[in-house]
Amino acid sequence: MKNSFYKLSHFITDFILAILCYNMHGDRMKKNIKVNYKSIFKYDDHHETVQFKSDGIYEKGFDKEKFTFYNNDQKIEIILKGKEMTLANGPSLLNLSYHRKIGNHYHTDYGMIELFTELITMEHDRYLKVKYILSDGHQQLSEVYVMMKYDFYGEENEAI
User: Fold this and answer.
1) Can you give the CATH number for the domain in which 114 is found?
2) Domain annotation covers residue 132
3) Residue 139 near residue 115 (C-beta atoms within 8 A)
């Protein structure tokens, strides 16, 4: 009896540790998704819109969520971790944090330049709505709005 109790408790302990390790490595959940993406760049006198649909991968780990998808051949990754967000769009890598200016490498038609981002709002619940300010450190260049609806395969993807 004592031996079987020991085996059972050992099995339960191993099971719990396996679950904890699984979660710590960020591999808790990985699913294919459908993405409906839209971003709007508002400048002083005009705005630009980028909108597309794509297939992608959603990963949820212990303390972060990651979305990976493509616009044509351009890889886009969005990583959410608490009140911070990382947006990688090809060679551009933007780190965003609430009400804090962060220097970033931003890819433009003129090459890579350093611009600053400040996350203003972020809503997330089976969709993502983000507003951030893009500046040169002194002057605001644009307000950027990112809206992304995502659904797991087998669910209907609604328009933004």
Assistant:
1) 2.40.128.20
2) yes
3) no
Residue 6 falls inside a structural domain: no
CA distance 49 to 36: 13
Which residues, 6 or more positions from 116, have their beta carbon under 8 angstroms from its beta carbon? 101, 102, 103, 104, 134, 135, 136, 137
Residues 6+ apart with CB under 8 A from 4: none
In tens, the pLDDT along 15-39 reads 454 444 444 444 578 999 999 999 9
| pLDDT tens per residue, range 51-96 | 999 999 999 988 899 999 999 989 999 999 988 999 998 888 899 9
Q: Which two tokens stand for residue 98?
A: 């609430």
* C-alpha–C-alpha distance, residues 101 and 89, integer Å: 19
Q: Is 138 part of a structural domain of the chain?
A: yes
pTM across the whole model: 0.75
Residue 63: inside a domain: yes
What range defines the domain where residue 46 resides?
Answer: 29-152
**Domains of the chain: total:** 1
pLDDT at 93: 87
